[in-house]
Amino acid sequence: MGEEERRIRQIMDRLNAHFEDRPMEFLTDREPWKLLLATILSAQCTDARVNQVTKVLYQHYPRLEDIAAASQEEIEREIYTTGFYHNKARNLRACAQVLLLRFDGTVPDEMEALLTLPGVGRKTANLILGEIYGKPSIVVDTHVKRVSRRLGLVTATDPTKVEAELKTVLPESFWILWNTRLMALGRTYCTAKAPNCADCYLSDLCPRVGVE
C-alpha cells in the first residue's frame, strides 16, 4: 500500500468514527420518488428545512400521481420556505409526470435515464444511485468540493471534474459515503470561512490547500 493510499484510508477511518459520534441531519425519505423530489428541493436549502417541508407535502400529496396532478400554485404553497419555489414547483410536477409517463412511476437506476428528468443533475442522480440502488457513485456538493480540495485530493473546481478526479483516487468502497462524511466535516470544522483546523481530527493528515 502506497503512502497516499494509506493517508486516504486513515482519513476515511477518522471520518467514519467521528460521523458516528456527531450525527447530522440529512434527507430522511427513503422511498425512491420521495427522496428524488426531496433532493430537488434541497438546492440552496438545508436538509432540515426540506425534511420539515416534505413531511407536510407528502401528507397532502401521498402518491406520485398526486404530485403530478397538482397545480404549480398548489405545490408552491407547500414548498415556499425552501426558496426558488417557482422553479422547484415546476420541476417537481414535471418530474412526477415524466416518471409516470416514461418510467411507469419507477425511479430509474441509470445515470443517463435520471438525467432526462426535469430538475435532476449529476448531484441528484448520484445521490439516488448510491442511496437507493447502492451503486458506487460520488455526490459532489459544495462541502465535498471544498474539503476534497483542502485535503489535496483534487485540483478541479467544476463538480463534474471533481467527481472524476475523486474516482481516480478513492477506493470504490468509499464513494457512496464520501458525501455524508465530508458534509459533516464541512458543517463543523472545515467550514467555508474560518475553518477550525487546530481542532480538526484530520489536521495531521491535511495539507490545508488554499487555507490561509
From TrEMBL:
<dbReference type="GO" id="GO:0051539">
    <property type="term" value="F:4 iron, 4 sulfur cluster binding"/>
</dbReference>
<comment type="function">
    <text>DNA repair enzyme that has both DNA N-glycosylase activity and AP-lyase activity. The DNA N-glycosylase activity releases various damaged pyrimidines from DNA by cleaving the N-glycosidic bond, leaving an AP (apurinic/apyrimidinic) site. The AP-lyase activity cleaves the phosphodiester bond 3' to the AP site by a beta-elimination, leaving a 3'-terminal unsaturated sugar and a product with a terminal 5'-phosphate.</text>
</comment>
<keyword id="KW-0411">Iron-sulfur</keyword>
<keyword id="KW-0540">Nuclease</keyword>
<keyword id="KW-0234">DNA repair</keyword>
<dbReference type="InterPro" id="IPR000445">
    <property type="entry name" value="HhH_motif"/>
</dbReference>
<dbReference type="InterPro" id="IPR023170">
    <property type="entry name" value="HhH_base_excis_C"/>
</dbReference>
<comment type="similarity">
    <text>Belongs to the Nth/MutY family.</text>
</comment>
<feature type="binding site">
    <location>
        <position position="206"/>
    </location>
    <ligand>
        <name>[4Fe-4S] cluster</name>
    </ligand>
</feature>
<keyword id="KW-0004">4Fe-4S</keyword>
<dbReference type="InterPro" id="IPR003265">
    <property type="entry name" value="HhH-GPD_domain"/>
</dbReference>
<keyword id="KW-0479">Metal-binding</keyword>
<keyword id="KW-0255">Endonuclease</keyword>
<dbReference type="Pfam" id="PF00730">
    <property type="entry name" value="HhH-GPD"/>
</dbReference>
<feature type="domain" description="HhH-GPD">
    <location>
        <begin position="41"/>
        <end position="188"/>
    </location>
</feature>
<feature type="binding site">
    <location>
        <position position="190"/>
    </location>
    <ligand>
        <name>[4Fe-4S] cluster</name>
    </ligand>
</feature>
<protein>
    <recommendedName>
        <fullName>Endonuclease III</fullName>
        <ecNumber>4.2.99.18</ecNumber>
    </recommendedName>
</protein>
<dbReference type="GO" id="GO:0046872">
    <property type="term" value="F:metal ion binding"/>
</dbReference>
<dbReference type="InterPro" id="IPR011257">
    <property type="entry name" value="DNA_glycosylase"/>
</dbReference>
<feature type="binding site">
    <location>
        <position position="200"/>
    </location>
    <ligand>
        <name>[4Fe-4S] cluster</name>
    </ligand>
</feature>
<dbReference type="GO" id="GO:0140078">
    <property type="term" value="F:class I DNA-(apurinic or apyrimidinic site) endonuclease activity"/>
</dbReference>
<dbReference type="GO" id="GO:0019104">
    <property type="term" value="F:DNA N-glycosylase activity"/>
</dbReference>
<keyword id="KW-0227">DNA damage</keyword>
<keyword id="KW-0326">Glycosidase</keyword>
<feature type="binding site">
    <location>
        <position position="197"/>
    </location>
    <ligand>
        <name>[4Fe-4S] cluster</name>
    </ligand>
</feature>
<keyword id="KW-0238">DNA-binding</keyword>
<keyword id="KW-0456">Lyase</keyword>
<dbReference type="InterPro" id="IPR004036">
    <property type="entry name" value="Endonuclease-III-like_CS2"/>
</dbReference>
<dbReference type="GO" id="GO:0003677">
    <property type="term" value="F:DNA binding"/>
</dbReference>
<keyword id="KW-0408">Iron</keyword>
<dbReference type="InterPro" id="IPR005759">
    <property type="entry name" value="Nth"/>
</dbReference>
<keyword id="KW-0378">Hydrolase</keyword>
<dbReference type="Pfam" id="PF00633">
    <property type="entry name" value="HHH"/>
</dbReference>
<dbReference type="GO" id="GO:0006285">
    <property type="term" value="P:base-excision repair, AP site formation"/>
</dbReference>
